[in-house]
């Protein structure tokens, strides 16, 4: 068994924003340093949300290009599409036969969908909920277990799914462990408040709050988006509290420590206006993201480069998946 396999799935739905970059992409790429890593585009998970073929195609390309542009090195990380690994879907069927239905009834995403029906006064609480949503945790467990994933970098919102995967691995190991055992995976989750990037209104940056700044906005639009972040009317010469300022909090994630300390000092002393702070923020974000934006655009413009990269990860991923599924089939008696 390979030691310390890091694995994560990237759900390609909608454009990525600065919060995804700070909270998901950067930490997952940093976690991968020095380990055996498998990162994939979770396209069948996205199918739960996107039912338009062209839109799905475009989202898959954009998700892959985003991670590559942000520094995922396909030579070192096995990078592939979930849909290219048929073994995952066979394992999903096998794991479903061991997973109690009650576990799925308690899944957060499913419960939230039922709660929305309750609030809307809809009597049939499962109305509008399909089996894709209901089975989502089993598919996610199969994604992880088919590669013998041991460490799974994810956001806090995914922690229940990792616990479910550990439970499902446990059911299998309990029944068939004499023949084959899955490693029981653990999440790599940053729980600190400091890792949450605020949006333009101060709440957590999120597509659903419409307070986000897209990751690869063209330079001019990025400058505008930063200038539009609301600030109070404290005059330029007055001292200001950096810790209650949204642009300053954003700056701490993009500028180096020296710059952050310098800006903090200037705000506290008075004489630095919000406009100056926003200029510093724009410079810091644009310096970090400018080259990545260029690479993203290059990848999106090429007809073939993305497919070539994704195809190159495929053999390495499938050979692991074939071996694991072979062991699982032998263990359960389907030879
Ligand atoms: P959204 O809330 O915009 O729909 P997603 O749920 O698609 O974002 O986020 C995908 C991942 O990106 C999450 O699991 C989380 O790790 C990370 N993430 C999203 N928003 C933020 C944020 N504001 N700060 C830090 N990390 C975030
Ligand atoms: N469910 C994850 C999300 O919504 C994406 C995902 C699918 C995933 N399969 C995975 C993450 C396996 C980690 C491991 O973001």
From TrEMBL:
Keywords: Aminoacyl-tRNA synthetase, ATP-binding, Ligase, Nucleotide-binding, Protein biosynthesis
Reaction catalysed by this enzyme: tRNA(Trp) + L-tryptophan + ATP = L-tryptophyl-tRNA(Trp) + AMP + diphosphate + H(+)
Biological process (GO), any one: tryptophanyl-tRNA aminoacylation
Domain of life, per lineage: Bacteria
GO cellular component, one term: cytosol
Pfam families tied to this protein: tRNA-synt_1b
A molecular-function term among this protein's GO annotations: tryptophan-tRNA ligase activity
EC number(s) stated in the UniProt entry for this protein: 6.1.1.2
InterPro entries per UniProt: aa-tRNA-synth_I_CS, aa-tRNA-synth_Ic, Rossmann-like_a/b/a_fold, Trp-tRNA-ligase, Trp-tRNA_synthetase
NCBIfam families: PRK12556.1, trpS
Family: Belongs to the class-I aminoacyl-tRNA synthetase family.
Protein's name according to its UniProt entry: Tryptophan--tRNA ligase
């Amino acid at each position: 068994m390979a030691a310390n396999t890091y694995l994560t799935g990237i759900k390609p739905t909608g454009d990525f924003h600065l919060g995804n970059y700070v909270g998901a992409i950067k930490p997952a790429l940093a976690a991968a340093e020095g380990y055996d890593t498998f990162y994939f585009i979770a396209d069948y998970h996205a199918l739960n949300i996107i039912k338009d073929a062209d839109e799905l195609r475009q989202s898959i390309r954009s998700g892959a290009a985003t991670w590559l542009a942000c520094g995922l090195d396909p030579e070192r990380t096995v990078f592939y599409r979930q849909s290219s690994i048929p073994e995952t879907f066979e394992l999903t069927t096998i794991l479903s036969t061991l997973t109690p239905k009650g576990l799925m009834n308690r899944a957060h995403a499913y419960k939230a969908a039922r709660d929305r029906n309750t609030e809307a006064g809809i009597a049939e609480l499962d109305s509008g909920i399909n089996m894709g949503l209901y089975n989502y945790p089993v598919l996610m467990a199969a994604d992880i277990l088919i590669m013998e994933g041991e460490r799974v970098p994810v956001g806090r919102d995914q922690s229940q799914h990792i616990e479910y995967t550990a439970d499902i691995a446990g059911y299998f190991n309990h029944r068939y462990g004499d023949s084959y055992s899955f490693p029981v995976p653990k999440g790599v989750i940053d729980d600190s408040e400091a890792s949450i990037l605020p949006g333009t209104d101060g709440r957590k940056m999120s597509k659903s709050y419409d307070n986000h700044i897209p990751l690869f906005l063209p330079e001019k639009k990025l400058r505008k988006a930063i200038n539009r972040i609301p600030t109070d009317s404290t005059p330029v010469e007055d001292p200001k509290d950096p810790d209650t300022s949204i642009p300053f909090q954003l700056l701490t994630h993009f500028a180096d420590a020296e710059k952050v300390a310098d800006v903090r000092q200037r705000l506290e002393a008075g004489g630095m206006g919000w406009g100056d702070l926003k200029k510093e923020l724009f410079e810091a974000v644009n310096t970090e993201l400018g080259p990545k934006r260029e690479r993203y655009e290059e990848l999106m413009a090429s007809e073939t480069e993305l497919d070539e990269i994704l195809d190159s990860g495929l053999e390495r991923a499938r050979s692991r998946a074939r071996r694991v599924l072979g062991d699982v089939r032998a263990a359960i008696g389907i030879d």
